[in-house]
Design a protein that fits this description.
Layout lengths: L1 H21 L12 E5 L2 H4 L2 H10 L14 E5 L13 E7 L9 E6 L7 E7 L2 H33 L3 H11 L1 E2 L7 E5 L3 E14 L3 E16 L9 H15 L9 E2 L6 E7 L2 E13 L2 E13 L4 E10 L6 H12 L2 E2 L6
Parallel strand pairs: 1-2, 1-3, 3-5
Antiparallel strand pairs: 4-5, 6-15, 7-8, 8-9, 9-14, 10-12, 11-12, 12-13, 13-14
Helix pairs in contact: 3-4, 4-7
Amino acid sequence: MLRLIISFSFILVLFACNSDEEEKILPATVGDVSEILVVGEKEHWNGMVGDTLRAFFDQPYPKLPQGEGMYDLRFITPLQFVDYEKRQAHIFRLSIGDKEQNRDARITQSEDIYAKGQKIYTFYALDGRSFVPTFNELKHQILYDLEKRTIARGIDRHQTLEDLAINKKVMEKFNVDISIPKGFRVSSESENVTVLKRYRDKALRIRDLGVRSHDISDGIVIYRYNHNSDSTFTLKRQIEIRDSILGLNVVSANEAPMKVEPLRDPMLEEIDLNGVFATKMRGLWRFDSPIMGGPFVNVSFFHEENGYAIGIDGYVFSPKFDKRDFVREVEAILHSAVPVLKPKE
């Protein structure tokens, strides 16, 4: 009987070990939201391969007041690719050189190798001359994939930090499920508009003055409006709608209305917002008194169940800092929005 119990226990241990291996729990990814870790040899990073990568990913992020690249590339050698570095969210591995595995120039992809939500691209090529055409053929698809994953990573982060009370308020009022992270507060609201604002401090090192703290603020404005024309989701009409609604509900200390910067045309694209047709507008906002401004992102869609259109606007004010990563934060909030087809009772 004792032998039977021991044998059965051994089987259970083996089963548990196999289950652990099959369901290995990976750590979360690390690293800045707009960073790509490049792992390779210095000669390739300092040559044609590195030049090609830098030229593409340093292209301007759209509709910012100052030029900032799409992604920051950070280089390390294979010997440095250990521990923390292996958990980076976006990794490019360079397999360049006269080896059999590199004769067929190609790019492979793998996910969740060292961390959950991770994407690793491996570039195989004999040299820079064979790397460049292979990369150029797929670079726009890689960028598109990185943008989707960056937004998804932001949504995941917001969902772990979401303010359940505010999310419930938005759900009940607009029938929209959205992940608003903690830190936002209801600044004002009316029957059809809710304005959320967040204020933060960030340290900035200033020459000869040391480290000083500066304010950063961002806002999320959720509103509904009538959809009564085929032109509702055109760029011209979306600018008019944003100016009319935010102009009344978001004002400066001198009561100046927020408006779209007229000297820098916004851009509009059609997107799939969690299964719903939507438009996404990017541009710059401004106050005339005092003169202030910054970037914004706006999504609008028709809420079929309730018969009206929904607009969700995210704007950023960070005069002493780069804006790209702050814009990506609010953009992820906007992309978490899902219309609820059956209003909760």
